């Protein structure tokens, strides 16, 4: 049953629980503050083989580690955009409802387009939070790639810089194997991280424990993300 | 400090830390070996002198009333060197974090028997606990979602008591921390170090907590803000933007969608919320814990049950049940199907069982795939046949020198004899050295050991990543189901079985989760062990063939 909101001029709302907004059910079920985390995953042809398998394994472990923490289970939300070609493989969901998707490697590396698509998803998600009176932590965006963008990435880099400037998200870039660290350094404001070998397991273990910590803190006062932590993985 | 570490209790009793049972920002909580009723909190940071004094003073100020409602410290814990490292306190069992109760989704899982009446009672019990602590001259100060624990029968315990602001024998030991969404406007945006906290500050956190419990986990200041800028909860608190208040429009706030209006909690309680959140309350006059206790007790006594939804208790005098339209509009069940004695027959066993059936079976432990790379002969194995073939000739070659000396040069007979002996000795020595590890038996031993390791690894893999624990729990559930069916006409009995079923279902879900974790955690090790075994088998086969 869907009832339209009965709003009158003058800002008085009648019967506000009949007033539907996008995602109202989900937020009625679980009104906890949200820590959104978007993963931008390179699934271009060069990731084929052990790399994509390790990545998928890391993701599965990530879900289960988050699900062991009762508060993170209600607060963390994960979404995935894969690129090669750009595809939203999972929209924002709490760990209990997030299913690590099957990943297949193919195509080139449209990193610029993926970043722009991802940032748009983050913007829309924040809209949904605001419309539903759900408080949220600054979203985390994680770019994981093993290559060089095959499309124009300057607009994406600008969007990242603009977003970081007004603190609308934190953007992290992780380079694997032959990744072009120079370009990543130009896209991300924070220094990019070079992943040692294919240690996706360690990367996601770090990410899940950082998100657990974050979800225990207060939305506007996140624990500092120690750069040492970050370089350590 | 970790499990097994030696510790000293305040009275000099020696002991050890048992398993870890909890972890917080400031410390970790352990069982204490041989002290079943107690647990120990060990701080991550060394304890300052004032902190240690505070704990000692708190242990002195224990009282039966405090013990009933809190995990009040019973004494200081020290390292064997006498350095203070933590505190001992009564162990709280059978309780869960209050946030598991107030969010509908976790409530259905963790508190399946809670209806709105339970929520009113829990709210009253939280207020009672606050009142008790304050009556002894203390202030909770750091009110937050994980420092209040609740039991299935609505009892409440306050933990993390060492962060209270306590006044003992005229000395005030302050609290330096606070969780912003429970912090009153007058204390927002300022360091809390050294700030004197008051019951009026507590009254703000208490009102927020009661609101969360009565209003389905919604924060009173998390509303729809009509401006364009960001409105985090802390800012909304500072600016008094109570999203459900009568004056919300003046503060550019609307209630979030799918939330009931403030009035559903009775005019009296609505009035208490207004008083707690109005700007004037910064100077004092927020409803006290005792006022909440009285008002909530009255509400509980006058609750009406909705004829449609059995869990839908609500305040009297409303023209309709507030929960029915909310559930209808969102499709979200706000409570788990409720089992009360009178309504036991209404428990929807079938639909609950569907949830159990819907839980995906983890399937057999995935096979550890054979290593993708074909083993190459290891260098030892590669050298083995060569060394075996050459050991005789090589030894002979080396022995030729002393033998030559024995015959070639003019020497007394005894010297010739000695040289010959040396030659023989060298011959055997070189042969023995070259044989070294080439014996096939060496390879057999190595292979045997690798195989043994593989077998234990595989057994561990099966136990942790296989479905056995899941199957066992599932079988237990099926047995409970059979009992439940047999218990027709015995509501008391059924009630007990139903709560056992719920517990077992929760455990089943945990097990499913643990299996998944084990699958990712143990796999790499198993693969490595298997690879080593393959290598050993290949070496052995090759070496024995070439013999
Ligand atoms: N008395 C107790 N009995 C059983 N479990 C307890 C007890 N006290 C604490 N715990 C468990 O340990 C966890 C951490 O405890 P507590 O919140 O006191 O630690 P903390 O480090 O002071 O936390 P905070 O992050 O709030 O400062 C709790 O969430 C709870 O699960």
Structure characterization notes:
The complex is a heterodimer of chains A (233) and B (547). Chain A is α/β, with parallel strands linked by helices. Chain A has a single domain, classed as Rossmann fold, CATH 3.40.50. Chain A has eight helices and eight strands; from the N terminus they run ββαβααββαβαβαβαα. Chain A has helices spanning 24-29, 50-67, 70-75, 111-131, 154-165, 181-187, 200-216, 227-232; strands at residues 6-7, 13-14, 35-42, 76-83, 87-93, 140-145, 170-175, 193-194. In chain A, the strands form two sheets. Chain A has a six-stranded mixed sheet. In chain A, α4 (111-131) runs parallel beside α5 (154-165). The radius of gyration of chain A is 18 Å and the shape is globular. Chain B is an alpha+beta fold and 547 residues long. Chain B folds into three domains: 1-91, 2-Layer Sandwich (Phosphorylase Kinase, domain 1); 93-339, Transferase(Phosphotransferase), domain 1 (Orthogonal Bundle), CATH 1.10.510; 379-543, no CATH class. Helix content of chain B is 49%, strand content 11%. Chain B contains 16 helices and 15 strands. In chain B, the strands form five sheets. In chain B, strands 1-2-3-4-6-5 form a six-stranded antiparallel β-barrel. A three-stranded antiparallel sheet of chain B has the order 7-8-9. In chain B, α5 runs antiparallel to α6 (199-214), α6 (199-214) crosses α8 and α15 (468-486) runs antiparallel to α16. The longest helix of chain B has 55 residues, at 491-545. Chain B is elongated, with a radius of gyration of 36 Å. Residues 339-346 of chain B have low confidence and may be disordered. At the A-B interface, α1, α2 and α3 of A face α4, β12, α7, α10 and α16 of B. The complex binds adenosine-5'-triphosphate (ATP). Adenosine-5'-triphosphate (ATP) binds at residues 21-27, 29, 39, 41, 71, 89, 91-92, 146-147, 159-160 of chain B.
């Amino acid at each position: 049953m869907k009832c339209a909101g009965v709003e009158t001029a003058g800002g008085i709302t009648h019967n506000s629980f009949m007033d539907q907004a996008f995602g109202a059910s989900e937020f009625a079920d679980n009104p906890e503050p949200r820590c959104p985390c978007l993963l931008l995953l390179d699934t271009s042809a060069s990731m084929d083989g052990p790399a994509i398998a390790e990545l998928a394994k890391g993701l599965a472990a990530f879900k289960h580690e988050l699900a062991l923490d009762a508060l993170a289970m209600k607060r963390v939300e994960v979404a995935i955009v894969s690129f090669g070609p750009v595809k939203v493989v999972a929209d924002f969901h709490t760990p209990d409802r997030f299913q690590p998707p099957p990943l297949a490697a193919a195509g080139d590396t449209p990193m610029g387009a993926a970043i722009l698509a991802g940032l748009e998803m983050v913007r829309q998600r924040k809209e949904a939070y605001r419309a539903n009176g759900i408080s949220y932590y600054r979203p985390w965006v994680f770019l994981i790639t093993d290559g060089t963008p095959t499309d124009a990435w300057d607009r994406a880099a600008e969007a990242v810089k603009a977003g970081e400037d007004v603190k609308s998200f934190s953007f992290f870039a992780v380079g694997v194997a032959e990744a072009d660290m120079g370009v990543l350094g130009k896209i991300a404001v924070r220094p990019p991280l070079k992943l040692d070998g294919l240690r996706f397991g360690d990367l996601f273990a770090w990410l899940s424990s950082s998100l657990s910590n974050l979800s225990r803190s207060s939305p506007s006062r996140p624990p500092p993300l120690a750069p040492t932590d970050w370089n350590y993985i | 400090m970790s499990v097994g570490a030696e510790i000293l209790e305040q009275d000099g009793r020696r002991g050890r830390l048992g398993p870890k049972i909890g972890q917080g920002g400031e410390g970790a909580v352990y069982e204490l070996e041989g002290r079943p009723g107690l647990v120990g909190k060990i701080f991550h940071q060394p304890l300052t002198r004032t902190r240690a004094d505070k704990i000692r003073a708190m242990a002195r100020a224990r009282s039966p009333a405090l013990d009933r409602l809190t995990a009040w410290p019973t004494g200081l814990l020290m390292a064997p060197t006498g350095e203070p490292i933590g505190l001992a306190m009564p162990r709280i069992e059978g309780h869960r974090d209050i946030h598991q109760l107030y969010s509908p989704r976790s409530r259905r899982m963790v508190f399946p028997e809670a209806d709105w009446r339970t929520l009113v009672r829990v709210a009253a019990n939280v207020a009672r606990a606050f009142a008790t602590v304050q009556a002894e001259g203390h202030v909770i100060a750091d009110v937050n979602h994980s420092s209040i624990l609740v039991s299935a029968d609505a009892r409440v315990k306050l933990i993390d008591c060492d962060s209270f602001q306590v006044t003992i024998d005229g000395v005030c030991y302050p609290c330096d921390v606070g969780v912003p969404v429970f912090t009153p406007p007058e204390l927002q945006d300022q360091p809390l170090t050294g700030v004197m906290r008051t019951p009026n500050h507590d009254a703000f956190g208490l009102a927020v907590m009661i609101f969360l419990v009565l209003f389905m986990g919604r924060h009173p200041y998390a509303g729809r803000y009509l401006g364009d800028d960001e409105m985090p909860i802390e800012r909304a608190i500072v600016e008094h933007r109570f999203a459900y208040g009568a004056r919300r429009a003046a503060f550019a706030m609307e209630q979030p969608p799918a939330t009931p209006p403030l009035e559903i909690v009775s005019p009296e309680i609505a009035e208490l919320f207004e008083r707690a959140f109005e700007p004037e309350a910064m100077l004092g006059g927020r409803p006290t814990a005792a006022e909440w206790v009285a008002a909530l007790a009255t509400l509980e006594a006058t609750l009406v049950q909705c004829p449609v939804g059995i869990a839908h208790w609500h305040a009297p005098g409303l023209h309709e049940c507030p929960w029915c339209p909310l559930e209808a509009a969102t499709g979200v069940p706000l409570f788990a199907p409720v089992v009360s004695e009178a309504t036991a027959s209404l428990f929807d066993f079938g639909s609950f069982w569907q949830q159990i059936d819907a839980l995906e079976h983890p399937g057999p432990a995935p096979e550890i795939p054979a290593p993708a790379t074909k083993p190459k002969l290891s260098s030892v194995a590669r050298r083995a046949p060569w060394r075996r073939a050459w050991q005789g000739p090589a030894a002979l070659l080396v022995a030729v020198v002393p033998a030559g000396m024995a015959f070639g040069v003019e020497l007394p007979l005894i010297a010739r004899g000695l040289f010959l002996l040396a030659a023989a000795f060298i011959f055997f020595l070189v042969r023995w050295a070259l044989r070294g590890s080439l014996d096939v038996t060496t390879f057999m031993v190595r292979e045997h050991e690798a195989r043994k390791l593989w077998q234990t690894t595989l057994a561990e893999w099966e136990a942790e990543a296989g479905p056995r624990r899941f199957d066992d729990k599932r079988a237990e559930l099926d047995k409970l189901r059979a009992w439940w069916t047999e218990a027709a006409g015995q509501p008391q009995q059924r009630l007990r079985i139903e709560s056992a079923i719920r517990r077992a279902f929760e455990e089943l879900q945990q097990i499913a989760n643990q299996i998944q974790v084990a699958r990712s955690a143990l796999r790499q090790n198993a693969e490595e062990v298997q690879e080593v075994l393959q290598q050993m088998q290949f070496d052995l086969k090759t070496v024995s063939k070439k013999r």
